[in-house]
Each structure stands twice: as C-alpha cells, then as structure tokens.
Amino acid sequence: MRRLRWIATAAAVATAALTAGAVISGPAYAETLFGDDFDDGNADGWSRNGGTWSVVTDGSPAYRQSSTSANARALAGSTAWTDYTVQARVRPITYATAARTAGIAARAQSTSQYYALVLTGSGTAQLQRVSGGTATALGTAAVGGTAGTWRTLALRAQGNTLTGYVDGAQILQATDSAYGAGRIGLVTGYASASYDDVVVDTTAPGPGPSPSPTTPPPPGDCRVTGAPIGFATVNAWGQNNTTGGAGGPTVAVDTAAELQAAIATPGPLTICVNGTITLPAGMYDVTSDKSIIGVGSTAGITGGGFNIGLPVSSVTTPPADAVHNVIIQNLTFRNASDDSINVQMFSHHVWIDHNDLAQGYDGLIDVKRGSSYVTVSWNHTHHHTKNMLLGHDDNNGAQDTGRLKVSYHHNWFDRTPQRNPRVRFGEPVHVWNNYFVYNTDTGVACQNNAGCLVEGNYFSDVEEPVTNTYAGPAGRCVARNNVFAGESGAPDCSGTVQEASAYYSYPLDDPNQVKSIVTAGAGVF
Asked: How many angstroms separate the Cα of 376 from the Cα of each of 327, 333, 338, 355, 447?
C-alpha cells in the first residue's frame, strides 16, 4: 500500500515518490496533481489556519477538524495550479446551526480568499466565493443528508466556470473571475468534520455513480435485462448499439442439440436457456443478432463453449459478414474444454453480462483477432487461472492495431491469478469499477503498445495490480482514482492513453464503494 503526495504540475510529467499508506492510486502522468488519504498517520504538506486538526481513525485514517468555535482552513498544493478538480470525502460531524458549513476549496490565494463547495447544516450544498473571510453564495442546491454521513464532494475550476458535484452528480455551476489560480483546501465554518481520500487532477469528474446492480427479471422470464454501457454502445462498423436478438422470435432450449441449432440460426433470435446444458467438448459458433439468456439462477453451459466469430484467417480488414450484435447474459459456465467464451475475427458489438464463469480449460472470456466494440460487465470469475485475454499474440498487430476496443466494468475478478485482463494492442481498453481480490500474479497487464485506462477499481491483496511492463513488449497505461487495499502493490504505469469519454459516456462509482457494489451485483441473477 502507498501514499500519494504532490505528483506533478499540470504541465509536467513526474514519477511520484511513494511511501507507506496510500489507497488512492499514484499514476505517473500529468493529469493527476496530488492525493492524500492520511493512511501514514500524518498530514505533512498541509498548512493550517484556525481550528484543531489531527489525523484520526474514522473508519480508516482521516484528517479531522474538531473545533466548532472558528473558521478553519487546511491548504495544500501549488499557488500556480489553474484548471483542475479537487475531490474529497467529507463527513460533517457537528454543525450546531443550519448556517454552519464543511467542504472543500479550490484556487485558494490565502486562507481568506478562495472558491469553496460546502455542505450546510440545512441539507444544502453551496458554491461560494470567499473574500476577506466573507462568503458570497454563487449557487445553492438541496442535497439532503445529515451530520455523520460521508459525502463525496468535487469542485471543478475550468477557466471562469466553477462546477460542484456531490456523490458524483453535478448539482451546481457558476461563472466567476475573481481567482484564476491557487491551492486546494479543506474548510469548515464553525463546524467539525473529517476528510479523506483527497485527489486533485486535471480531468473533470465522471458523470456520476452508476445505478445499483441491475434488478433481476421476474422468475421464469427470458428477456435481456438492463442495457450495455461502454464500447458495445458505440456507433461503428455499421452497427449502432448492441441489441442482440431484439425484433426476432424467441426460442426455449434445454438440450445441446436445441442450443446448437438455435445459435446457428440466421437472423435475430432470443434464445432462452433452461437448466444446465452439457455440450460435447469444443467451441460452438454463434451467429449475428443473438441474445443468449439464462432463465433463472440455474441456467448454464458445461463441457463446451461459445465461439463468436468467423474461422481464423489472415485477413486484416473487417469483413462485411463479421459476426456482430450478440448478447450473452445470466449463464453459468463450467468445465469448458477450451474457452468458455471466445470473440474473434473482427466480431463486434458484443455484450457479455452478469455471468458466472469458472473451471475452464483455457480462457474464460477471450477477445482477439481484430474484434472490437465489446463490453464485459458484471461477471463473476473464479476458480480459474487464465481469466481474460485481449489480443492473443505479440505478432498479430496487422489485425489488432487500432481495434480491440473493450470495456470491462463491475466485474468480480475473484482469486483469478492472471489475465484480468492481459492486453495487447487494444486502445483504449477501459477497465473501471471492477473488484480485484487476491490475484497472485497480475491484475491488469497492458502490453505490446496497448493503451489501458484503469480507473475507479478496488484492488485487494493484488501483488501487481496494474502494469505495462509485465512480459514482452511494453504497453501504455493510465491508472487513476483506484483503491489499493491490504497487501496490494503500486501501479506500474507510464505513457498516455486515449480517453474512453471520447467514445461514450459512463457512470463512475466511488472506488471505496466498489467492493460492496460488485459483490452484491456481479454474477447470475
């Protein structure tokens, strides 16, 4: 575990010097400026004015201001910082009156001149300009909540625009030109509060927390539940979004012969899998426009697996008949003789969601040979070594370069030693809000000029959670706003990566909540 300090200015790239204690990630790239989670038991680098400040245990180590008899300020960072976002978890302890406040500050010129986003005792959030110690409200919004509750506040300063976020949702915006640069701060107005997980970077916050895990369908129902997020939604290669068998008939299957016939049928089709179907050893081809949906919690496949893709060839341009528009949801996969699910040969717009996969022979979910626009979400993988491969060979750049665009979110990588995923060539490969636990070799391994964006994940006891120097040619990776718990190592990342937000919008959960969110929702319904 590590503790991140001031990492870089907005115009420079620096490698952080890390010491024991951090949970927030410390990537070596220019976008992240500063982070502190106080896990090392001190608040070095913070200058204080007013109040009584100390590092305490408040669930985890936190920085507390305990006085209610004065305005109190703790500042950190650089007076030269201009456009950035400061984010922290804030727990007001005592307000005493409705007008008292606790929050965060940006562009602080001094302890009496800054912008602030504060919570008030009346259940509102307020965007403020503070000058000479006097606060002017630039905007107020009701956010509810009471003293004693942790909230995540983010204040974005971009040009003359100030934007306030509470728990990931944008709630306030104002324009003001009083302060163009300055430090960040933790501020209270005659209130006591705890602060934790302070992060400063040059990117805007994500579009808010994801909805709670998808509501299970009614018993016996066979419909696609929810909707994809990520690359499976992107309008590309002649396909807009991933809809599977929508618009076609529905067929129920409970034998290997029925299943094999259904997945080979041309045209849109929803295939309802009842019970556990034992396939003969091998991989079975799935044709375009299919939804393969498990009915209830006992539906599954054993013995064989699914191949989504044309036969292997050396072509380097996506063929017009590439397999596309496939959904696999709510199935348990066991004892596959090869891969449980293989996506290959320029297949695209595939959504693999809410499945339980274990004990296969080779990969559980592999994506390779030029495939792209794939989302892998809410799956529980366990009791298996070679988990998920993205790009199968260092010599396959002709098919893979510029492709292998895959989103991995809210998956539970449960004691799967490696390939979580192992990536070659793909960019951007977006790995967000997943729960990694006791992956004894690597978490995300980004190799051979791949570009991986790894954000908002929870790593627990993962020796090498994120790396671009694992084996073979190096890749590029950016790791930000991750939690590294237990005996987890530090991210080993360098280079720049395309932003996933250039392709799609996505919700982003508080990484501190990801473990509970994912374990409650991943796997079959």
From this structure: 10, 15, 19, 10, 20
- How far is the C-alpha of 232 from the C-alpha of 372, rounded, in Å? 8
Q: Choose between 105 and 201: higher pLDDT.
A: 105
HEC string for 185-227? EEEEECCEEEEEEEEEECCCCCCCCCCCCCCCCCCCCCCCCCC
CA atoms within 13 A on the CB side of 385: 3
| 419 in catalytic set | yes
Catalytic residue among 419, 424, 476, 480: 419
* Structural domains of the chain ordered from first start: 2-201 (2.60.120.560), 231-521 (2.160.20.10)
* Residue 306: both structure tokens together: 């699914």
pLDDT tens sequence across 298-314: 999 999 999 999 999 99
Q: Where are the beta strands (DSSP E) in 23-59?
A: 32-36, 47-49, 53-58
Q: How confident is the model at residue 411 (pLDDT cuts 50, 70, 90)?
A: very high
Q: What is the pLDDT of residues 467-510, one digit of tens each?
A: 999 988 999 999 999 999 999 999 999 999 999 999 998 889 99
